[in-house]
């Protein structure tokens, strides 16, 4: 049954049988319906024709008798008196009736034809047909009447009233018909409804059978209507045809017609058994055909399927050949579908080959990757026995290189014996599915028994029904060593940070203080506990020293990283502390933010020294006035300032007279005192904005801004007078000192300090020339 051919053959056979059965059943049912319709139609035709025919016969006799009675118009006496003659005149009625009779008004037979002995003189006064004729004065047809003494002589009496000339009842003309006489139903017996079908006539009033092929049923009570309900309905006046059970319990086609002129029902009954006989024969023949089809179906189906599957068989061979590589494509002659299947198989095999090659390439790639990996990679079976190891595993696990030496060994053998008991429970949990994997730091046996510290990861690999475990070992001995040395380095770093003089603050990635050394605590005015974990920006406010502009650590981290920056630190007690900040940011891999190392060096002393040097470079230490360099700088600034040059400015050169003598007589110290006193005079007489300098020795140079020459001359005269009145405090009598002063106005065309100084010098020299202790403002005409 597993063979496709057998299944197809059986399927085809069954299909054939089912189709034959189905068509046979259909044609049987169709035929049966047609036969039924035909037989019923035939029965209806027969019964209708018979009913009409008998009805016509009855009506003809009825009319004949009526006409005869109507033609008489005799009174009762004449009827009695001339009865034989009257009846003689109606002998022509003998062709239609078995006998004719004349009754007087009292119901006595007064004449009959043919004459029957003993009939004349008998009274029918008590008979229903006579009474109804007399009472209704209308023609009547009696119920069947059985003639006494002769069972086969049953009669139907037709009666018609005889009226006298006044329309009074005078007698009755009667005609009898024997049921068995040929005049009424005689030819009915010749009508055949198949072999077993029959016609019957029953009266509705007295429920007697008056015709039946079985003579013994005639004049017997009609069939029981409870056993033959269709007949019962016909007695109620129903006309029609149907299929029902006959009185004998046999199913039959039935047709009933009620007659118009007499109270009778004509029925036709045709047993189904015979009605359907033609179709039954056909059904039997069909059954034979089905049987034959069933017998032939399997061999025919088998043969047909064998033919149809021939190309498929060939396809199988081709596919096998292709599967083993003997052929590259499948070509087959057959149906279009098979050709398409062959093409699809060719494509599938092509794709399979491509995928196999790709898989092989990938496997080679991964194998090479595994073999070259510094990670130890190994696979075990469900029991933990090694099925694959890469080179790194062999090295780390101290396993032999030859496959036969490690294949099938338990992986735990490669773990250092001291740690096997620790790892075993984890392995068992993984093995029994209680865990999906595990991670352990442990030691492997290592080469020549030197344990190697490794990170071991185990994963469960379930592929269908095959359970494997994948182990990955990573040599972490170097990393651990590096970690140890890093920790030592860190300790050293911390010791250094603690011992250095500079303030150092470390922050985490969120700029929160993670370390603050003692100098930093002092500088920022806080202790380690209150700084720890808080944002550094809370304690550090910075500004550029020159501009005073505030700057944040974040900005410095972006712009001045790892560069020493001179800044002013505003301490918590609002002191400005000069510092040099070196800010480094250590970026962690993959992180947006970094750790900050903030080194703050106290810059107060250096900044103070620098200020002093700067001051000394431009000032005279004895008088605290600007020196030559300072003066030249101020004069250069003036020349470069267009706005100031647009005003009147005066440059003055002053040289003391015979100052040498002061030194000589009062000592160098007295000379110094004089120089300082003169500086004080100048500072008193000039504005703060003016420039006062000592160029060297006893020589002074001045710049009077926004000042006319005359005004300047007046000021310098006052100065000269002050100096002339000056007496050295140490030795007031030693000598007196005076000053020769030359001044010049700065001209708009002046560009070089030297030219202006030279002009002023020249006037100063002129003052000396003219006798000293004077102010010279003009040179010749200037
Ligand atoms: N006490 C003192 N003396 C100084 C200083 N610098 C220069 N001198 C002296 O000042 C004197 C200047 O003398 P001279 O340049 O010859 O001029 P003078 O003596 O004033 O003579 P005339 O200028 O010609 O009137 C020298 O004796 C210097 O030694 C100083 O800083 N302190």
Automatic annotation (TrEMBL):
It comes from the Bacteria. CDD domains: GGDEF (cd01949), PAS (cd00130), PDC1_DGC_like (cd12914), PDC2_HK_sensor (cd18774). Keywords: Cell membrane, Membrane, Nucleotidyltransferase, Transferase, Transmembrane, Transmembrane helix. Residues 362-403, 489-547 form the PAS domain. Its main location: membrane. It is an enzyme of class 2 (transferase). Pfam families: dCache_1, GGDEF, PAS, PAS_4. GO terms for molecular function: diguanylate cyclase activity. It is a multi-pass membrane protein. PANTHER family: DIGUANYLATE CYCLASE DGCE-RELATED, DIGUANYLATE CYCLASE DGCP. This is Diguanylate cyclase. It comes from Vogesella aquatica.
